[in-house]
Amino acid sequence: MVPVAFAADNNYVPMLTTTIYSMLKNASTNRMYDVVVLERNITDENKRYIRQFFARFSNALIRFFDVNRYLAGFNLTTSNAHISIETY
């Protein structure tokens, strides 16, 4: 099993989907990939879409991990608009 982690928010779903697709399209079919997305606000609809879209890859598992409770109480900010809080 090859672990792969991404950090993304709902705004980044199109780019996330493209990146995961490119990775899986070019990945070895002889290996399994455990794709974990660290997130806190990806909508259920987008999660469903992503899971359905990647169902064609039998060698990949797509999981979403809500980081909200782990970030609670921290005042995390960034001056870079391209870095989401999930990245922390």
Automatic annotation (TrEMBL):
One of its GO terms (molecular function) is glycosyltransferase activity. It comes from the Bacteria. InterPro entries: Glyco_trans_8, Nucleotide-diphossugar_trans. It comes from Bifidobacterium longum subsp. longum. This is Uncharacterized protein.
